[in-house]
Amino acid sequence: MLFDGRMSLCLFFSPYHFMELGLQMWTCISELSLVGFVVGYPFDRQRLAPDATQVKLFIDDLSETGKLDGLKFTFWDERFTSKNVELLIKPLSLHPVLAKTVVDKFAAVQILQAYLDYVNKKERR
């Protein structure tokens, strides 16, 4: 559950497919009455990663359209999610293209689950 007991949904995207994600987001907002998004963000205290800049610019651009008005969204640390999934699927010896897709999808699920765990734990306190 996400935001006031409503349904949670996991979308994943490549940093190079922002337009596709924007269309997915707008479709989901209207069809599923979404109230918020959890955005995987590559935090790095030492430097600003290029992917982090792309994610931030994408959200800023979407915000300027007005289509995110009234929606809640939060950035969530994604630094170790891909590496965790890579280690899990390594014994499967998947084709590199399939492995990348699997890693991206499961990393997105891990990001959302980490956020939901945090919110649930915070609510219990």
From TrEMBL:
Q: Which GO terms describe its biological process?
A: rRNA 5'-end processing
What parts of the sequence cross the membrane?
A: none
The secretion signal range is none
**Pfam families under this entry?**
RuvX
Q: Any idea what this protein is called?
A: YqgF/RNase H-like domain-containing protein
